[in-house]
Design brief:
This protein has helices at residues 8-37, 46-70, 125-131, 138-145, 150-157, 159-181, 184-211, 224-250, 260-305; strands at 4-7, 72-75, 91-96, 101-108, 119-121. The protein is mostly helical. The chain is elongated, with a radius of gyration of 32 Å. The chain has a three-stranded mixed sheet with strand order 3-4-5, covered by helices on one side. 66% of the residues lie in helices and 8% in strands. The longest helix is centred in the last third of the chain and has 46 residues, at 260-305. Strand 3 and strand 4 form a beta hairpin. The chain has three domains: 4-75, Helix Hairpins, CATH 1.10.287.180; 78-135, Transcription elongation factor, GreA/GreB, C-terminal domain (Chitinase A, domain 3), CATH 3.10.50; 142-305, no CATH class. The protein starts with a strand and ends with a helix.
């Protein structure tokens, strides 16, 4: 039968509980049942039924503890050599970068886990994250980032902001200037190309963040914002943008305002603008997340080096 890991401390605590149940609680309850029997009619004897119910709970707990100990692989964590990794029995301290609060967890067996005591099961999701090879101390993350020069590190950390600046410049500065200086059809074609190229560049940069080809990927923030960014860019690049270009190509002299095709084009244009603006806002937020992570990592690394 499969053995389940358990710390020596946890096994000793269970053994102490088992001894108490057998040597103290069991005799006490047996005596209480005997006294209740002397009171006469058992059907109406509340003390008797309460004692029997308690006896059932105690006996069930005794069997449970005996089964746990019988199938436990007791590990003395003081003899382990983690070699810098998070292993069973390790104590892990994490930092909440939003509140600067430090939380300490100890990784234990399933039967020892106790959330109020910050003891988490080896099989819990958070323990599995801690055990992943990718898990590192944030200060170690920053030490590996030292491969980059300080300006380069800032460039990558603040990438969301300057990418947003590129899109703002193309969409809200260059595009109006082109429409003001060139014929509408010509300006529309050039603006469409610039918008697609600029968003393609942003999407390429995000993908490079995922692959980690240019820098140490553990230092940067990913998650729902990142996924939503990639999704909106893909919608613009591979659906809304090409659909609008197809309509413009079918009518090289321009769309007739008020026509069904023009209305369809304006609907797509409105969705495109909404998605484009959403990408800019998300990039600003994502850049703030990244820069905050970089600042925290650097502070932890500097603290570690003291």
């Amino acid at each position: 039968m499969t053995k389940h890991p358990m710390t020596k401390e946890g096994a000793e605590a269970l053994q102490a509980e088992l001894n108490k149940l057998k040597k103290e609680d069991r005799p006490r309850i047996t005596e209480a049942i005997a006294e209740a029997r002397e009171h006469g009619d058992l059907k109406e004897n509340a003390e008797y039924h309460a004692a029997r119910e308690q006896q059932g709970l105690v006996e069930a707990r005794i069997k449970q503890i005996e089964s746990i100990l019988a199938h436990a692989q007791i590990i003395d964590v003081t003899k382990l050599n983690p070699n810098g990794k998070v292993v069973f029995g390790a104590t892990v301290t994490v930092l909440n970068i939003d509140t600067d609060e430090e939380l300490t967890y100890k990784i234990v067996g399933n039967e020892e886990s106790n959330v109020t005591a910050n003891k988490i099961s080896i099989n819990s999701p958070i323990a599995r994250i801690f055990k992943q090879d990718a898990w590192r101390n944030p200060a170690d993350n920053h030490s590996e980032m030292k491969r980059l020069s300080f300006p380069a590190a800032i460039l990558f950390a603040s990438s969301g902001w300057w990418l947003a600046s590129v899109l703002i410049m193309v969409g809200y500065v260059v595009a109006p200037l082109l429409f003001a200086e060139l014929p509408e059809v010509t300006a529309g074609k050039l603006v469409g190309i610039l918008l697609q190229w600029s968003q393609g560049f942003v999407l390429l940069w995000l993908l490079l963040n995922v692959t980690g080809l240019w820098f140490y990927r553990h230092a940067w923030a990913f998650g729902k914002v990142f996924v939503l960014l990639a999704l909106l860019l893909a919608i613009n690049l591979f659906w809304l943008g090409p659909e609008m270009e197809t309509l413009k190509a079918a009518f090289p002299e321009g769309l007739s305002k008020g026509s069904v095709v023009w209305q369809h084009f304006m609907m797509l244009h409105g969705l495109y603008q909404l998605s484009y603006l959403s990408v800019i806002l998300l990039l600003v937020f994502w850049g703030w997340q990244n820069l905050k992570k970089w600042v925290v990592n650097k502070a932890l690394a500097d603290k570690k080096s003291l």
